[in-house]
Amino acid sequence: MRTLGMAVFKQQKVEDFYEIGEELGSGQFAIVKRCKEKSTGVEYAAKFIKKRQSRASRRGVRRDDIEREVDILQQLQHPNIISLHDVYENRTDVVLVLELVSGGELFDFLAHKESLSEEEATEFIKQILNGVQYLHSKSIAHFDLKPENIMLLDKNVPMPRIKVIDFGLAHKIEDGVEFKNIFGTPEFVAPEIVNYEPLGLPADMCLSGASPFLGETKQETMANISGMNYEFDEEFFGSTSELAKSFIKQLLTKDPRKRLMIEGALNHPWIKSHEHVEDTNACPEAHTGSEIHQMKTKRLKDYTIQSHCSIPPNNTYINFERFTSVVEDISLVETSLEGVAEIRESIQEDIEALLSIYNEKEVWYKAESENMHHGLSQARYELCKVKISREDLQEDLRATETSLASISVRYLERLAHLGSLREELDAELRWLQEVVASEKGEPMNSKQALVRRQSVVNIENFRKQYARRRWKFSFRIVALCNHLTRMMKKPQDKPKEGYVERTIAMFERDCESDQEEEVLIKRPRTRKRSSTS
């Protein structure tokens, strides 16, 4: 269905453009009133349709249904079909401005006639068929052809024009699209509607007026329609011709494929035989010949009253909408039940597969849990080892700090000792300078010259030995400090047990050996000085 925009539904007050008159009729959710267009003075019929305000509500007509009816009416332009003039919308209603059909219902017109010939009947039926043929040419099915929806444009003419009205249930039938629904008035619907079968254009051809399927209850009527149980009551069909009965039988066929279609109905001998009947006043013989097929309209009126009183008036929009919903639900349930066994087997297989997977996963999780516990235990053990190593390293660091403090003290002592040695050396040098200065002016023998040369050599050697020992002592102190610093920066490289003590002891021995060498160097120089002096 096409989506209708706001341009079609004018958001204006209909009273601004039309004078609203008296009420012409009403239904469950619609009221029809006479109206006159202010600009032209032409009279129309205004159909006020109450909109449904919410999806949960059952009061009013759904917006989709109203749009579908308007969309279909916009496509129709035919002498035997009511035409749409304008559409207005407000908060509560949609107003359809339609062609005014003031002649009333066809059955009311026929009931007021004393008699009706088959020739007159075929003229009315032919107009109805022409309208239906036009609908079917546009792939539109009315789905609610009944006496109340067949009106006369003007009953005050010799042969009134038929107007098919009320397209609230009409649908566009699309090729290849299956369409199912339940709607209409029970005694006038086709069997495929009652049986909830796919619907098409043939459904319109089985919608009858004076229903031969009418039962005492709605359920009996539907059962008669579904089973095509009907008979021509002699009281009502005694004067009906065999051609007319043949026409009715071909229309009331259960199988839509065998049912008389619109073209076949228009070309049926009963319709064709009365197609060129002239006016009865101009041809008395024709009038005399048709007397045998006169229908007593009193019986028609009684039958119409009986058919409309035997079943309470039924509302199309609400009763069959609910019934349709129930039938659709039942159909869905039946479709679902057909696959319950397969679904159950499939579910059982899925459950077994899930149990198998669960057991496998349970074994896997158990193994993973054991591995995880073992890993955690190993991690705890390694953590304890790391803690112990850290404590040992901290103790070694504390011992190293203590040793460094001791080395610093000893280093200061050695510096002080070196200072005293420097002072002694300076004193010795001054003494040597004095000796050399005192002996410059005196002659020397060979022995004294030799002693002088040895003294000069000894002084030079002492200077070199002093510088070398001082450099060696400083280098060892710096190397020891660097080594201890690296140990403090890398606590993971834990030194072997006693390494720090051995290093410090070695340093002390080197210092003592240096002192001994200094003493040995100093003593001969003292002896030489004594010999020289």
Molecular structure report:
This protein is of the alpha+beta class. The protein contains 16 helices and eleven strands. A five-stranded antiparallel beta sheet has the order 1-2-3-5-4, covered by helices on one side. It starts with 17 loop residues before the first strand and ends with a helix. InterPro entries: Kinase-like_dom_sf (IPR011009), Prot_kinase_dom (IPR000719), Protein_kinase_ATP_BS (IPR017441), Ser/Thr_kinase_AS (IPR008271). GO terms for molecular function: ATP binding; protein serine/threonine kinase activity.
Keywords, please?
533 residues, alpha+beta, Phosphorylase Kinase, domain 1, Transferase(Phosphotransferase), domain 1, 3 domains, five-stranded antiparallel beta sheet, two-stranded antiparallel sheet, 10% strand, rod-shaped, disordered C terminus, kinase, nucleotide-binding, Kinase-like_dom_sf
SSE string, helices as H and strands as E: EEEHEEHEHEEEEHHHHHHHHEHHHHH
The CATH fourth-level homologous superfamily of the largest domain: Transferase(Phosphotransferase) domain 1
Distance between the termini: 141 Å
Ranges with pLDDT <50 over ≥5 residues? 194-209, 277-292, 307-318, 521-533
Catalytic activity: L-seryl-[protein] + ATP = O-phospho-L-seryl-[protein] + ADP + H(+); L-threonyl-[protein] + ATP = O-phospho-L-threonyl-[protein] + ADP + H(+)
Family: Belongs to the protein kinase superfamily. CAMK Ser/Thr protein kinase family. DAP kinase subfamily.
Keywords: Apoptosis, ATP-binding, Kinase, Nucleotide-binding, Phosphoprotein, Serine/threonine-protein kinase, Transferase
Pfam family, one: Pkinase
